[in-house]
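From the thread on structure requests for the teaching lab: each student submitted one protein with a one-line request. Submission from student K.M.:

"Model Peptidase S9 from Planotetraspora kaengkrachanensis, tokens only."
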Amino acid sequence: MSQFPDIREYVALPRVVSLRLSPDGTRLVSVVQSLNPDRSSYGTALWEIPLDPAAEAYRLTRSAKGEAGAEFTTGGELLFVSRRPDETVKDNDEDVPALWLLPERGEPRRIAARPGGIGGVRAAGGAVIVAANVLPGDAATEEERRKARKDAGVSAILHEQYPIRYWDHDLGPAQTRLLAGSVQGGLDDAADLTPEPGRALDRVSFAVTPDGSSVVTTWLVYLPSGEMRAELAAIDIATGARRTLAASEGHEFGGPVEVSPDGRYVACTRERLGDQELSTALDLWVVDLETGEGRALGGELFPSAVAWAPSSDAIYIAADHLGRRPVFRISLDGDVSRVTEDDGAYQELCPASDGTLYALRSAVDSAPRPVRISPDGSVTDLPSPVPSLDLPGTLTEVSAVAEDGTEIRGWLVVPSEASAENPAPFLLWIHGGPVGSWNDWSWRWNPWLMARSGYAVLLPDPALSTGYGQSMIDRGWGDWGPVTHADLMAITDECLKRPEIDDQRIAAMGGSFGGYMANWVAGHTDRFKAIVTHASLWNLDQFAGTTDASMYWQREFGSPGSARYARLSPHHSLDKISTPMLVIHGDKDYRVPIGEGLRLWWDLQRSGVESKFLYFPDENHWVLKPGNAVAWYETVLAFLAQHVLGAPWETPESLS
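Reply posted by the TA:
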């Protein structure tokens, strides 16, 4: 077991991000992210994960451009997407992702390319379906039209409907389309299954029926006044005919989309669209592929991973539950049984025909690793490219009782050296979402790096958190600040009673919704010595019209200018903020646009609040580049050291 690394070593650790099982159940392949030789960016590669726990994982691909989207064909060949150059083409300088095939024995070969690149790929029954980025108009002239725009220096995009961007990228002028080909023929004569789809396939999730005859896909429907919803559609590969499988005025249907091995049913997620009175809800939705008849299964479990049992009579899901993310088995009759009983958070479920389940297991105290889950629920580690780490502290489950009698639970990380004689300074970390849970390893907000620096870290699940039933979400719906703040203070008070924690040297921090709450906390208590707010909402009326998904926001909060905005916007408590604040924001953040960070920073400056602004011109809602991640942690720790530990301010080495 390796000693827990410092920040620079930490960002260099390899990260397992996916898992795929071959149709015959004999091979596991993963996409692994690791630091590139230049140490300023990450790359990806395909790795073989042996089924024998005593063996060693080994790397399958080594291109400088990296590989992603691993997918097995029915025949067991491995498809992947890569920007690697095709050595069989003279003077090839393409830098768009193409589709490659890696046979079980032999070298990779490119089987399909498009001028705008290829994204996702799914294969079954001899059919290969890809999501491609295609300009509207004549496909035969697309390449020269792209070149003409580039040569003319035209980057402008004319929009005629909302939205215009998503997370960190602009939408248009190209459209996502689904193209159908085969391993043998590639996409040279691909059938365009979705000509002129508009923006219907943005954020697409799709699957192919086992016989290769149909594609089942999400399909966005755009409505008046900027509204939209996602439906589920089936497309006949031979004819291109599309029919609606699932649609509802009050719901969206989304991924993951999975077809049963017998080809009879489709499983996906169904999200209830909340409004100012009714909270959002998510359930597992199963549709009869022939009739379109659908039903919800699993009760109040919010599924994140979905996979059919090979027998087609049950579905495995991973769902948040009391600070964990166990695997559940749900029969088509509606019976629900829990498969895993540990503290793990599971994803990438891969069921085998013998009843074994392969998956990625992680937890607050464990980075994602491939595992084998036996029918009896026992879990065995498989060989992994990620080293096991000796954590610099302990993890304890904690709880408190809220004002309304609700139990509020969380995880408490305490550094190894903390004791009653040497109590640790305390950090309250508020999760994003707001519909989410602290139950998993986080590469971006890792509490163990803070424990390594001597801090105890509380990871609470207050109102709006998942895994505690719909009532927990209902408690905070449309009432974000007051209810969530009370929950956070209740569990903070409980933790500060512990002798190994210093109840005077305390700080709070959060990102996204957690950043909103950090701002709310700053305006409603002065008990904390410092507050770090990352990608945070500040002026809700301003935010509502600039975020990339205004329609979702306004369902819960109403039109800008309503009383709910006035009551819940943190900026109205500016005059009560006295706590030093570190504001962090990325310019490419379209979910919480940079205007929120800029306005917050200016308001703090003009009000005389001691503050600093850590600005990332090239980062999005998260901070993903390794060098910037180092700067993020170093700056946060320096700010906390100054205000919590009483050390003099020192500009981090990464920013010098």
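TA comment: The mean pLDDT is 95. The first helix runs from residue 7 to 11.
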